[in-house]
C-alpha cells in the first residue's frame, strides 16, 4: 500500500535562522500530532544545514530544491550531490516548473540530474506538468508523456523505488487556481499508466505521485481521497506551521 507523502517546497523563502526555528516547531508538532504520512521539507541551499540539524531524529525528510548535473568542477554557483549528501541531504526535487520556465532546464538536462542523483543513491522527486495553453490545446497527455519518458530515460527498474513523481499543472502554481480532484486524479492515472508501460504494472502500482498546485488545508482532503493521488508538493502553504500542519494532518 502506498504511504502518503506530503512535501513542503519553501522556494526562495525563509533565512537559515527563520527556517531552523520553523523546522524545529514543525518537528515538535508532527510528533505531537501523530502524523501518519511521510513529511518532507525543502529549504533553500543556505538553510539546509540548519534545517537538517533542527529536525534531526524527527523522521522529517529534508530535501534540496535542485542540484547540479555534475559531481564537481568549474561550475560557478552550482551545488553538487556530494555536497548535499555531506550535510545529510539525500533527497532532491528536480524538474520543478520554475526551473524549467525561468532557468531553461530542458527534459534532457533534468534527466541528466535524475541519473546523477540516483547514481549517488539519492531519492528524487521528479516534477512534471503542463501549462494552461498546453492543457487548453489538448496536449496534456503529450506533454506528460514526453516529460516522463525523457526524464526517466536510462533509469533502471530497480531504481524506481527512489523516484517520486509530482504532478504540478503550471497554471495552478501560485495562482490560487487548483485542478479539481477529478482533474488531478485523471492526470495521475495517466502518469501511472505511462510508468507502467515503461516498466511494469507493479512498479506503476507502487509509485508515489504527488499533486502540486495551490494545495491548502481547504482542498487537501478532497485531493487525497482520489485513488491515484498519494501526496502533495506544497508551496506557499508550507511556509508557516498554521498553514502546513493542517495539510499534513489531513487524515487525523
Give an account of the 3D structure.
This protein is α/β, with parallel strands linked by helices. Helices cover 43% and strands 15% of the residues. It is built from eleven helices and eight strands. Strands 1-2-3-4-5-6-7-8 form an eight-stranded parallel beta barrel, surrounded by six helices. Helix 1 runs parallel beside helix 2, helix 5 runs parallel beside helix 7 and helix 7 packs across helix 8. The two termini are 18 Å apart.
Query: Gyration radius, to the nearest Å?
Result: 17 Å
Number of domains: 1
Instruction: Classify the secondary structure makeup into a structural class.
Output: alpha/beta
H-E order: EHEHEHEHHEHHEHHEHEH
Let me know the CATH homologous superfamily: Aldolase class I
Name of the CATH first level: Alpha Beta
Mean pLDDT: 96
Q: Which stretches are poorly predicted, pLDDT < 50 over at least 5 residues?
A: none
Strand line-up in the sheet with most strands = 1-2-3-4-5-6-7-8
**Counting H and I runs of at least 4 residues, what is the number of helices?**
11
Helix content: 40-55%
CATH architecture: Alpha-Beta Barrel
> N- to C-terminal separation?
18 Å
CATH-defined topology: TIM Barrel
Quaternary state reads single chain
Content of β-strand:
5-15%
Count the beta strands.
8
**Sheet with most strands:** 8 strands, parallel, barrel
What form results from the Cα inertia axes?
globular
Amino acid at each position: 500500500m502506498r504511504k502518503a507523502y506530503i512535501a513542503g517546497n519553501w522556494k526562495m523563502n525563509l533565512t537559515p535562522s527563520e527556517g531552523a526555528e520553523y523546522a524545529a516547531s514543525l518537528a515538535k508538532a508532527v510528533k505531537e500530532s501523530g502524523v501518519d504520512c511521510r513529511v518532507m521539507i525543502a529549504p533553500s541551499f543556505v538553510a539546509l544545514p540548519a534545517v537538517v540539524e533542527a529536525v534531526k531524529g524527527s523522521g522529517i525528510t529534508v530535501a534540496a530544491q535542485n542540484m547540479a548535473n555534475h559531481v564537481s568542477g568549474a561550475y560557478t554557483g552550482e551545488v553538487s550531490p556530494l555536497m548535499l549528501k555531506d550535510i545529510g541531504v539525500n533527497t532532491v526535487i528536480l524538474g520543478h516548473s520554475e526551473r524549467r520556465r525561468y532557468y531553461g532546464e530542458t527534459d534532457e538536462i533534468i534527466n541528466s540530474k535524475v541519473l546523477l542523483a540516483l547514481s549517488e543513491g539519492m531519492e528524487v522527486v521528479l516534477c512534471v506538468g503542463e501549462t494552461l495553453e498546453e492543457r487548453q490545446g489538448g496536449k496534456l497527455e503529450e506533454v506528460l508523456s514526453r516529460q516522463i519518458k525523457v526524464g526517466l530515460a536510462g533509469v533502471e527498474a530497480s531504481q524506481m523505488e527512489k523516484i517520486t513523481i509530482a504532478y504540478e499543472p503550471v497554471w495552478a502554481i501560485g495562482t490560487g487556481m487548483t485542478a479539481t480532484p477529478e482533474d488531478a486524479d485523471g492526470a495521475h492515472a495517466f502518469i501511472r499508466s505511462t510508468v507502467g508501460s515503461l516498466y511494469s504494472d507493479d512498479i506503476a502500482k507502487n509509485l508515489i505521485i504527488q499533486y502540486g498546485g495551490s494545495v491548502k488545508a481547504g482542498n487537501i482532503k478532497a485531493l487525497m481521497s482520489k485513488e491515484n493521488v498519494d501526496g502533495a508538493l506544497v508551496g506557499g502553504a508550507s511556509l508557516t506551521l498554521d498553514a502546513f500542519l493542517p495539510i499534513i494532518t489531513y487524515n487525523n
